[in-house]
């Protein structure tokens, strides 16, 4: 009986994560439909502010080029974007940031870097 309940709960979790359209548990899933999403734009702005404060990298004309999500105990957002580096003689740079957002909406930058 316990095995049957365990299998049922696992099936509910898998179906539930698919119906949320967030992604599969454990792996990243591409979400090009989120590129214009206001929450994603806010996350990219958050990453740009982080890069300005930690790497002294001022970014302008930010364009989001890719969004991936990973369902964990919250959601990891892997964001790819291009921007003009203001303090790098207006050089176009490509950046990637991973931001963990808990279900209570608290955020933490896991990694952020530009080439």
Automatic annotation (TrEMBL):
Residue intervals of the Cystatin domain: 36-96
Record's signal peptide: 1-19
Record keywords, A-Z: Signal
Domain of life the protein comes from: Eukaryota
Molecular functions per Gene Ontology: cysteine-type endopeptidase inhibitor activity
Protein name according to UniProt: Cystatin domain-containing protein
Species assigned in the record: Adineta steineri
């Amino acid at each position: 009986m316990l095995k049957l309940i365990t299998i049922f709960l696992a099936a509910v979790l898998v179906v539930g994560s698919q119906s949320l359209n967030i992604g599969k548990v454990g792996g990243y899933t591409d979400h090009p439909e989120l590129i214009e999403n206001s929450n994603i734009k806010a996350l990219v702005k958050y990453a740009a502010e982080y890069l300005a404060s930690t790497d002294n990298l001022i970014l302008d004309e930010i364009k989001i080029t890719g969004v991936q999500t990973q369902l964990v105990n919250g959601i990891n957002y892997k964001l790819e974007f291009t921007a003009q580096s203001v303090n790098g003689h207006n050089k176009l740079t490509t950046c990637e940031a991973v931001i963990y957002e808990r279900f209570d909406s608290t955020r933490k930058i896991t990694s952020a870097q530009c080439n």
